[in-house]
Amino acid sequence: MEINMTMLTFPALVIRECDYAENDKLLTLLTAEKGKITVCAKGAKSIRNKDMACSQLLCYSEFTVKERGGYYTLSEASLIEQFFGLRSSLERNAAAVYIADVAGEVCVENNDESRMLSLTLNTLYMLSETDRNVDFIKAVFELRCASVSGFCPELSGCTVCGRKDAPRLYLDVMDGSLICGDCFGADDEEISRGDVAAAKIILPLSSGLLEAMRYVVSCPPKKIFSFSLPNEELSDFCRVCEKYLINQIERSFSTLEFYNRIKAMSLK
């Protein structure tokens, strides 16, 4: 029985690559309409291959592929953007690889992933072409990624009493909800002790931090990086966003561990 072959053309971002056979690669591509797909790029490891540049991790290109029986083989590709600025900083490159890793985890095949593709490309642009704080860019991506992927926290008010302006509000990282200090019925020290017993992660949020989180999950896509935080709140914002995403998708990333090691080295 003959299986028909179809030619498809689409823009896509390479979010993973691995060696295959002697001179080939398997590329994981993030596309808008088909979601995450795996493409075999024959001869892509050869420096003489015309598609070698497009087959690199974090490159955004126009791909033409042959599809036969659910398998994709690269026919040709034309580079759109390679985010050259990432090569100038190990820290920025490590953050970008982690971001691609997260995108590969939350995206699925045969699904509309246009919002995640747009978010990932926007984040890579910020890392590559601006001098914004790397931790800030990473944190905004993490929280928006959680929102886009169906894990958006409920930040409108206390999940128990509904208060929006309580003097003390806490984020239940596992549940994705807010609870005020009155409803929790404990001071900060008691919350830490209750944490362990209840296997919960409860993080205090300042009013500025809460407003920043509300902005990230609700603002127009092109404006997610259009705000700033004072230094005293930035580290808390980054910690909360990372912890929230990692706990919601319930897995760790070696690429995140590598990024944190690179960051620690740069601070010495």
Features:
268 residues; 8 helices; alpha+beta; 40% helix; four-stranded mixed sheet; five-stranded mixed β-barrel
Instruction: Provide the low-confidence segments as ranges.
Output: 187-198
Rg result:
21 Å
Name the helicity range.
40-55%
Largest sheet: 5 strands, mixed, barrel
Mean pLDDT: 90
Shape: elongated
- The helix/strand series, from N terminus to C terminus, equals EEEEEHHHEEEHHEHHH
DSSP helical segment count: 8
How big a fraction of the residues is strand?
A: 25-35%
Category by helix and strand content: alpha+beta
Number of beta strands = 9
Measured between the Cα atoms of the first and last residue, the distance is 64 Å
Widest sheet: strand order? Answer: 1-2-3-5-4
What does this structure look like?
This protein is of the alpha+beta class. 40% of the residues lie in helices and 25% in strands. It is built from 8 helices and 9 strands. It has helices spanning 90-106, 114-129, 134-148, 181-184, 188-198, 207-218, 231-249, 254-267; strands at residues 5-20, 24-31, 36-41, 60-68, 71-81, 154-158, 169-172, 177-180, 202-205. The chain has a 5-stranded mixed barrel. Strands 6-8-7-9 form a 4-stranded mixed beta sheet. Strand 1 and strand 2 (24-31) form a beta hairpin. Helix 1 runs antiparallel to helix 8, helix 2 packs antiparallel against helix 3 and helix 3 packs parallel to helix 7 (231-249). The longest helix has 19 residues, at 231-249. The protein is elongated, with a radius of gyration of 21 Å. Residues 187-198 have low confidence and may be disordered.
